[in-house]
UniProtKB/TrEMBL annotation:
Keywords, ordered alphabetically: Hydrolase, Membrane, Metalloprotease, Protease, Transmembrane, Transmembrane helix, Zinc
The protein, known as: Peptidase family M50
GO molecular function: metallopeptidase activity
Family affiliation: Belongs to the peptidase M50B family.
Cofactors required: Zn(2+)
Transmembrane segments: 83-102, 108-128
Organism whose genome encodes this protein: Faecalibacterium prausnitzii SL3/3
GO biological process: proteolysis
């Protein structure tokens, strides 16, 4: 597997990744793919911002064909911090969808509607309880918090960058 590292970013298969992004953007005459990618990047920036607030440094981010993955293995994060970290991405998408819904009520545009839909769908998709999506992370760490508070303490399911789309490891 070919990897290129640039500071805190690790690009897995960079030639294939750049080529695929180039082709997708080349054939995106409508610009809707760009809005979807923007929603996904803003989603990830939500995770990164919360991580930086919690840990006071940037995470290592792996960029692959299927998305981004923050490497948090080895970091001292409590289940509560990990839960907040998982919630941050969808929260950004839902906040942007809410702001755009208000804007669309005043003046509806095709691009505005597409950006609203991209954020809403990105947020909803990431709530699915399927690892490594945020919904599975939220369920695992909410369960860990529940077990800490009310008894039986077991380890929540983990996540790895090899299977992930937009995941937190």
């Amino acid at each position: 597997m070919n990897r290129v590292r640039a500071g805190k970013l690790i690009f897995r298969d960079p030639v294939l990744l750049c080529g695929m992004v180039y082709l997708l953007l080349y054939f995106d005459a409508s610009g809707f793919l760009r809005l979807g990618l923007l929603a996904a990047v803003l989603h990830e920036l939500g995770h990164i911002l919360v991580y930086c607030i919690q840990q006071r440094h940037l995470p290592v981010i792996e960029v692959t064909m299927t998305g981004f993955c923050m490497r948090t293995a080895g970091e001292r994060l409590s289940p509560r911090q990990r839960l907040v970290l998982a919630v941050a991405g969808p929260a950004v998408n839902f906040a942007l969808a809410g702001v755009w819904a208000v804007r669309l009520a005043q003046a509806a545009t095709i691009r505005g509607s597409a950006f609203w839909a991209a954020n809403l769908l990105t947020g909803l998709f990431n709530l699915l309880p399927i690892p490594p999506l945020d919904g599975a992370q939220m369920a695992a760490y909410a369960g860990a918090l529940w077990r800490q508070k009310y008894g039986k303490c077991t380890q929540p399911a983990g996540n790895d960058c090899k299977t992930g789309t937009f995941g937190v490891k």
